[in-house]
Amino acid sequence: MRISHFLLATLKENPADAEVISHQLMLRAGMVRRLAAGLYTWLPLGLRVLRKVENIVRDEMDKSGAQEILMPAVQPAELWQESGRWDQYGPELLRFKDRHDREFCYGPTHEEIITNLIRNEIRSYKQLPINLYQIQTKFRDEIRPRFGIMRGREFLMKDSYSFHLEQSSLDETYELMYKTYSNIFNRLGLKFRAVLADNGNIGGSRSHEFHVLAESGEDAIAYSTTGDYAANVEVFEDGVKAGDPSPDGKSVLDIARGIEVGHIFQLGDKYAKAMGASVLDEDGKSATLIMGCYGIGVSRLVAATIEQNHDKNGIIWPESIAPFSVALLPMNMHKSQRVREAAEDLYNKLQAVGVDVLFDDRKERPGVMFANAELIGIPHRIVIGERGLDKSEVEYKGRLDEKSQNISIDRIIDFIIG
Description:
The protein is α+β, with helices and mostly antiparallel strands and 418 residues long. It has eleven helices and 23 strands. The strands form six sheets. Strands 3, 7, 8, 9, 10, 11, 12, 13 and 16 form a nine-stranded mixed β-sheet that branches. Strand 11 and strand 12 (230-232) form a beta hairpin. Helix 1 crosses helix 7 (298-308), helix 2 (44-63) packs antiparallel against helix 5 (167-187) and helix 2 packs across helix 7 (298-308).
């Protein structure tokens, strides 16, 4: 992509209303723009990252055997009334009426909708277990939206729902989703912990949250200093303390901050029983289904990744979700035909082997070009100039490298892709 054809809307200064580093950098890098409280437009740079995160989530969910569907964002009140949540959920549920005075809500989650689908489509135990997922926009009317994408009102979420006849089958899928989530966060290059959690207003029994470890995290995580035990401090009745004995008996607890990016639940028969979702078992008798629910905050993952990967110059994207892999920076090419031709040739060759390149073809000072590339977090930087071309070399610098190095122009593509 040539910058001259790309909406690169970077800012020099931190916006005054941005409290956390991810909010500051997403605005400064031109990834998002605020429309209203908790509502953001994703600009081309940010959307490229969001789609790459989404694709990793989709790829791992597909590998797990889950099937993708897409349910309506707008949901009829009668399904929520069936489950009993219409009056329980609270003001976070955005309610409205259509022109016929029928009540609806903008879905913050989809347990009722998926249960309604399953009770109409699944008749026999032979069709179980089944795990269906979607990646879709949700809305929760937060009382105080803040931290930009981190706690917005509208957000992109992957939510999946599994249905079973026996607890052992639910346990098996729950463990599979635990591993699938771990694979997703590892592919994103994140440091994370899976912790025991409270189910909140979703309901059900067994529950784990997945937290990206970051100083700006809103949740406190208690974890064993030597064992595998970890839990949200909310599960401790006596409370936010480090040094207490770990419940696993192996060591003492320490406390860290975390950003919740995923949550898996065992819901049991909470929704199926309330809404009459059942199948015929092996003996031809009606049996109520049991259910699992598994969510990932796709848009929140973008912000959480920045919280964990940045420096004073800007974002440091993991290779897997960087908006572009390479920043190609020709020095004064508007004055040098040789530099222009070499840059155009390398740009075309990198694209031909499938490398995402951001080609800075603007008439800009080198300092501005370098600053932009670092701010938006591109992993690889290639500089082409007259002095380098005299030696048939380009200057290369990785986003985390302290110093640049000179590499033969004939070797640079193998260096990047190898």
